[in-house]
């Protein structure tokens, strides 16, 4: 039995060999039976501990030095047992019996000591995890005491925290109470909440998680968006990371991920009950496997939301649509009737609209907001159209048709309507960066960045998108990188549904969702398909490995690639997209994907490119030995990317390759330890944003060569210590953002020579012991700072008092999207 526990583990095998050696002695070791019995007892106790250590070493790549002593001890023990086996009555070796007995007792004592050490080490590791979480809370509390910050620094963000409820709910008090009765009952481990799309299942699950009684019972709550194509290994990994509060390497298999999660729950959930919410689970084999696996987990409750029934799991709860009173209340709120902003139409029209929405919260909110501020005639037409439709419960298509009427009122704002349609290009159930939306709109609709954000605000005001991060007036000097939003998958389906109503050849948007290697038949059947779309979006899952069919896309201006596989070979037909202006490549996974092309000359051929955005990509951008310059490229953005050696190589002629670049944005790229000096030769550069790059400790010495630089953002680069002296040559600088640079010890002595500077954001620069006296020369600067710095400025330069703004923000984690 003990040997079965060992399995194929590394340390377990070493212990198992010693155990086997004891068994092989048999009757030959009868003289040592008492002490061997004690040793066997120790080995039986050590084996489970060693097995856990093996698993942790394997999964987490923990250091193995601490267990080397055990290896040596086991080897010595095997040699000693071989010698004991040679001791026979009447033999000369028998005289050595007392000596061997003493050595065996020393081995027994050593095993006891090592067992104590192993237990201490495991307790230590658990305390380390608790310490990490305590440090996180300590930093958050410190930020709160100092007036708030938008971003705690250098912390791992658990992927499955429960999102906040961002608006007041209507009609969910009774369902929450009924859920508590059902799920908290003894013997019930899993409860499935079912209802059609748009009924508010996700909102109900969030309301349940934030209920006071539920919070008191479950100290650990995990919220996992599942959607149509669940990745079991990734979901299990996300749950483990959220429970442990640390980031894990990629787990090798579904089984290993499940075993590790099961092990962790057994160790921790006795005193820390766990609630796991699986949101938006679709029918299919993958979903069945996921539910089966999680149903086997010990010491936890599982709440599932789904449009589908799962008969194998008997406990279910059907979420009814809102009753008439609550439906009216929600609709009035969405249409601003309760605030008197919109003129109240006749009751009959309101009843038609509410009846047509079938009291579904999503339809009520979207259509209500679309009618806000509209004339009575628009209300009447909408009510008449909705009254003609059939039952919304028959299929999601009828829900889509119902919601489509909310777009009809956008006909007077075609850019907003078209932008909504474009949102079908992005991966379902994922956050979309506002910067990505801006990159797309600036090309397709010739908008500037502020106009694109107004369009996004319009979509939000109509509940067609939901902002993840709280919006600020003015969007913080046009810095949109920290703003993101989501779109309900029903609304994404609506955009795709409307697109599919056109023949493929006439579509201005071509959106391809590829499952496995199942390519669209119309694409495979044609030797070379021709598309005249201006926007093409291709989404592939982790199983995709097919070779790409050919395509001619002479009119495409925006290409969006949504990836899930760890390696990805770009389609060769991209090279012929001569009008391509925006390239967006996003990987939806925990780590990075390696993006390659057949001849490493992909970017060379895309000479019309104006904007490039990479998210979670490890790509050697300039891998071609003789790359061609991207003469039209104006902006390049990196989010959570890893830079190749060619980017860091001082001999790479970056300025020659990007001669007209205006903006570089680098966010959460932790392997960026330094900025290439050659980058400072791009004299056209006007905006440089390096934010949340915790590996960055210094700026290049030649940063002063960026003579046209207007905006320099170094927000949340926590290990940046000082500026090079050449910084004072940036005479065109309008904005300098060093907020949350907690390691920054000093500013340039001649900072007063930044005569064009209009804003200096130095909130939470806690290592700045004093500021240069020349700062008093800045005449037209708005200072954002902490209270202590503000008081110092007012004292040293009283005339600056009106320009100092102490930022009194509440500490929050909205930037995480939870």
Automatic annotation (TrEMBL):
Residues 1-153 form the RPW8 domain. One of its GO terms (biological process) is defense response. Coiled coil: none annotated. The keyword Iron does not apply. GO terms for molecular function: ADP binding. SUPFAM superfamilies: P-loop containing nucleoside triphosphate hydrolases, RNI-like. InterPro entries: Apaf_helical, LRR_dom_sf, NB-ARC, P-loop_NTPase, Powdery_mildew-R_dom. Keywords: Plant defense. Belongs to the disease resistance NB-LRR family. PROSITE patterns: RPW8 (PS51153). The keyword Signal does not apply. This is RPW8 domain-containing protein.
